[in-house]
Amino acid sequence: MIGRNGRAEEHIDDGCCTPVIDLEFHLSRPRGTWQRGTDTATVTRVRFRNRRYFTKGHLAPRVGATRTLRLRDGLLMESLTAAVYCNDRTRIPSKCGA
């Protein structure tokens, strides 16, 4: 969920039933269009629900971390957790994680 004030919330589970992490972040510096754009996300809150999903090779997000979100033809690629979000028209099973 993204609010008009740039505050965003993200809740990730394992694809079925186990919550993994809840994030809050602030979005700033939007660029481009809804089809091809970027935005900067800064983590403001992290709640771990299951730490075993994060490893040395796939580090967990931390408060203060900043990453770029990319929107490409309806796919939102979130680099804080490597999640990819789709809308109804861009559902691609091999790419969509939420």
Summary, kept brief:
The protein is an all-beta fold and about 100 residues long.
Polypeptide structure, described:
- The chain has strands at residues 7-13, 19-32, 36-48, 66-72, 75-78, 83-85.
- The chain has 98 residues and is mainly beta.
- The protein has one domain.
- It has a 6-stranded antiparallel sheet with strand order 1-2-3-4-5-6, with no helix packed on it.
- Strand 4 and strand 5 form a beta hairpin.
- It is globular, with a radius of gyration of 13 Å.
- The two termini are 12 Å apart.
Strand order of the largest sheet: 1-2-3-4-5-6
Class based on secondary structure composition and strand pairing: mainly beta
- The helix count comes to 0
**Which range best describes the helical content: under 10%, 10-25%, 25-40%, 40-55%, 55-70% or over 70%?**
under 10%
On the 0 to 100 scale, the average pLDDT is 85
Proportion of beta-strand residues: over 45%
List low-pLDDT spans.
Answer: none
Which overall shape is indicated by the principal axes computed on the Cα atoms?
Answer: globular
Secondary-structure element order, N to C: EEEEEE
The description of the largest β-sheet is: 6 strands, antiparallel
Q: How many domains, in number, for the residues?
A: 1
Give the total of beta strands.
6
Instruction: Indicate the radius of gyration in whole angstroms.
Output: 13 Å
Distance between the termini: 12 Å
